[in-house]
Amino acid sequence: MENKQKGNLAVASAIMHFVSSGYTVSIPLSDTAKYDLVIEKEGDFLAVQCKFAGYEGNPGIFSVPLYVSGGNRSAGNHRIRYQPGDFDLLFILCANGRSYAIPFAEIADQVTINVGRITKWSKWEQYLLISTGEFCSTAEESADENFPNSVKP
User: Fold this and answer.
1) What are phi and psi of 39, to 5 degrees?
2) What string of pLDDT tens digits covers the 153 residues of the chain?
3) Alpha-carbon 64 to chain mean position
């Protein structure tokens, strides 16, 4: 899969997560913005940058570079680090399907972070999002209660 496709997959996953969580999701008209999405709930707006993490340094541990190294915002082969004000929330989709939503303030001074390390010292696991499968099973149970005569898939 090419990098553009990986980025599109991360954006689609973020849209699914935020819409399923009750947010209104807006997408910039061009791809030159410093964020991929804007989410809104109860009048609060957040700019979201989406990243796909496919590189595993160790099994299940994914490296997430916190800079732009291609696309429309880079100058040649330079890496442009994210700056305060670029976005409010970083959404990460890992190749294993796990996803994270990390506030910019938590990553502001980082160049790269590693997610997936499940130990008491792992700072990033607190930002792990509920999996799609878990969310769907809860929704199906709720549908059974609210619509007892509905047809099950």
Assistant:
1) -115, 150
2) 788 899 999 999 999 999 999 999 999 998 788 999 999 999 999 999 999 999 877 888 999 999 987 655 555 667 889 999 999 999 999 999 999 999 999 999 899 999 987 776 788 889 999 764 444 433 444 444 444 443 434
3) 11
Burial letters 29-44, b for 16+ CB under 10 A, else e: eeeebebbbbbeeeee
For residues 68 and 148, what is the distance between their CA atoms, to the nearest angstrom?
49
The separation between the first and the last C-alpha atoms of the chain, rounded to the nearest angstrom, is 31
Environment class of 18 (CB within 10 Å of its CB; exposed 0-12, middle 13-18, buried 19+) = buried
Helices (H), 24-150: 104-107, 132-146
